[in-house]
Amino acid sequence: MSHLRLAAAQLDTVVGDLDGNVERIVAALEAANAAGADLCILPELAVTGYPPEDLLLKEGFVADNVVALEKVAAATGDCVAVVGFVDPIEPGTPTAEDRATRAEGRLAPGAGEGLIVPGAGPRGRLANAAAVCARGAVVGVYHKRLLPNYGVFDEERWFTPGAGPLVRYGVAGAAVGVSICEDVWFADGPVPSLGRAGVGLVVNLNASPYSRGRRAERLAMLRQRVAESGCAIAYVNQVGGQDELVFDGASLIVGADGELLAAGRQFCEDLVVVDVPVSGAGGERAGSAASPVVAISGAPRRAAISPPSAVPEPLTDDAEVYGALVLGTRDYLAKNGFGTAIVGLSGGIDSSLVVTVAVDALGPDNVRALAMPSRYSSEGSVTDAEALAARVGIELAIVPIEAAHVALTGVLTPVLGGPPQGLADENLQSRLRGVILMTVSNTTGSIVLTTGNKSEMATGYSTLYGDSAGGFAVIKDVPKTLVYELCRYRNRRALDEGATPPIPESVLDKPPSAELRPGQRDDQSLPPYDRLDPVLAAYVEHDRTAADLEADGFDPAVVERVVALVDGAEYKRRQMPPGVRISTKAFGKDRRMPITNHYRAAPAGETVPGA
Q1: Side by side, which strands form the sheet with 367-371?
Q2: Cα–Cα distance between 384 and 404 in angstroms, integer?
Q3: DSSP sequence for 295-351
Q4: How many other CB atoms are found less than 10 A from the CB of residue 116?
Q5: To which H or E segment does residue 227 belong?
Q6: Which of 73, 144, 304, 591 could tie 133 with a disulfide, CB 3.0–4.6 Å?
Q7: Is 28:271 a contact under the CB 8 Å cutoff?
Q8: What fold does the segment set 2-302 form as a domain?
Q9: Of the residues 44, 155, 244, 515, which is catalytic?
Q10: Residues 332-344: pLDDT tens digits?
């Protein structure tokens, strides 16, 4: 048993920033080389950033990404690098895998040509690829075999799946196989095949978005693949925010015995260096397909084995979610050129959490809040807003909306035949606040962070062009009950750090209310959140029908009410700003429901006619 020194570089790349991504990759390679690594692995599509989406329809972008890869390859030396990029394949030509193997004399001329491959078109095909680079050149290319096409993934839109023989790379005397993200998730994927081909280590390049509990799920899956393949697996993951997606890093290296050898930190860049025990070049097992070999390096660069570093403790569920919100907010603003943010701070639980997250993401000097009380706002709401602003150290401006409310009521009265009443008057107040926030945003260049949570987004309990007005929705995917949990978590963390809890207890204790009419409470318009949120999770995230929910034991009256609210609010959600995704199904790319939609599932115990 020999050892291969592996460096897993989890990077915060930026989609489309080819030059910047090359700089990040080369810096990671230099650090890995300085650490004596034999092999450095980098995330999926690290050259382009992930997901590049329809940038891939631009031929110039694809060509520039190839040039960028050449710069990465030119920067390699004795430390082998495996890096993700987009490989263009012209119609009727062999894939890069075929070209690489033919260059080594392992395929007959013409092999792989003329095949009908899904995704082929007049402009050519693209592969989600990993380049194996050493001593200044690309020495091999692997194309992702399994293309995810569910949830936030649309890879069949852009990519052609890889085919052809799986290649073993001789690195530091060990046989190494390459795979990309989805390839490792299935028992019938390429990883067990690589194990049967005699590979001692499979590297897996990832851009795997965060959702709650994802790290534990990945580790369990990797141990299953290790058991099936009989080899070690190194899983490197991207980190950082990209639009609504957050990538959590948390890279994992699992030995051939299933032991977790090393792991990357969550929600930050990291270079994980570990000496991985691997078998040698190894022969193919009986019944396995022929596997070409590309010899790169014959012995480890360093004979001495370093003791493994301590594996970082996984974050708790609340800490994970909070970390995702902070990172997603920080990166969205930074990558889109916003240095400062402004928030409407009502003294309620949602805006209190958003302000706290923003301060943790950007620093107090870069966050400003406006309290905009109306005739219906309680005195406690203003004092709670003042208390929170003082605790987190931000500027708070108090801007009463009464004068504007009176003026607009006067303008609208002749049009309506009387002053706005009921919901129209409530929404008028919210829209006034939106106008104020957006005017400050336009004047200062600060982005407005909206404060609506997932429970409100789901049920349409929000005002278009009012509380929905803004550029980024920090807690868009956080249900109301979790908002309370996160506030309590952040206060506990402050106490553990010897600091003052940022969120006043009075904010946590008072009943939630929009304060748009006298004595208003949320539970007058919605079921109590502890009853609402489980129904929403089942209906929205798990695609249960109303009949399913009733069969599951939910109150039929609550189900009927909630389903009607969710279905009726789709047009509102289409107009909401993007926000951090923390669940397995967030509003946006994950859930693409038609706005015009007359489907209603049959009640429990009934059947649909003709079914």
Answers
A1: 395-398, 367-371, 341-344, 447-450, 472-473
A2: 23
A3: E--SS-S-SSPPPPPPPPPPPPHHHHHHHHHHHHHHHHHHHTT---EEEE--SSHHH
A4: 5
A5: helix 214-229
A6: 73
A7: yes
A8: Nitrilase/N-carbamoyl-D-aminoacid amidohydrolase (3.60.110)
A9: 44
A10: 999 999 999 999 9
Do residues 54 and 159 make contact, with C-beta atoms less than 8 angstroms apart?
A: no
What CATH fold (topology level) applies to the domain 318-522? Rossmann fold (3.40.50)
Peptide bond into 88 cis (omega under 30): no
* Token pair listed for 485: 């949990």
| Count of C-beta atoms within a 10 Å radius of residue 151 | 15
Q: Where in the chain is the domain with CATH 3.60.110.10?
A: 2-302
**Polymer length of the chain:** 611
Q: Look up residue 594 and give its two tokens.
A: 């038609």
Sign of the four-CA dihedral 406, 409, 410, 411: positive
Residue 348: strand pairing partners:
none
| Count of C-beta atoms within a 10 Å radius of residue 348 | 20
**Cβ within 8 Å of residue 274, ≥6 positions away:** 5, 6, 8, 253, 261, 262, 308, 309
Mean pLDDT, the chain, integer:
89
Quickly tell me which residue has 């990797």 as its tokens. Answer: 222
Q: Which of 40, 79, 181, 231 is catalytic?
A: 181
Q: Is residue 245 within 8 Å of 152, Cβ to Cβ?
A: yes
From the list 79, 97, 144, 585, the catalytic residue is 144
The per-residue pLDDT for range 32-88, each reduced to its tens digit, is: 999 999 999 999 999 999 999 999 999 999 999 999 999 999 999 999 999 999 999
Higher pLDDT, 594 or 108: 594
* Catalytic (active site) residue 79: no
- Nearest-CA neighbor of 171 among 225, 122, 232? 232
Cα distance between residue 401 and residue 421, in whole Å? 17
The DSSP secondary-structure symbol of 91 reads: T
**What is the bridge-based pairing of β-strands 168-171 and 472-473?**
unpaired
| 3-class DSSP assignment, residue 562 | helix
Using CA atoms, how far apart are residues 103 and 294, in angstroms rounded to an integer?
11
Based on the residue annotation, tell me whether 181 is a catalytic residue of this protein. Answer: yes
- Helices 480-496 and 317-335, interaxial angle, to 10°? 100
Q: Are strands 174-180 and 168-171 parallel, antiparallel or unpaired?
A: antiparallel
Among 8, 572, 542, 581, smallest CA distance to 274 is for 8
Please tell me the predicted confidence (pLDDT) of residue 602: 60
- Is the sign of the CA dihedral 187, 181, 219, 190 positive or negative? positive
Chain-centre distance of CA 88, in angstroms? 26
d(C-alpha 507, C-alpha 239), whole Å:
33
CA distances from 267 to 14, 209, 321, 495, 584 (A): 15, 11, 10, 22, 18
Whether 44 is catalytic: yes
Poorest-pLDDT segment among 70-74, 109-113, 458-462? 109-113
Positions of CATH 3.40.50.620 in the chain: 318-522
> What gap in Å lies between CA 160 and CA 145, rounded to an integer?
8
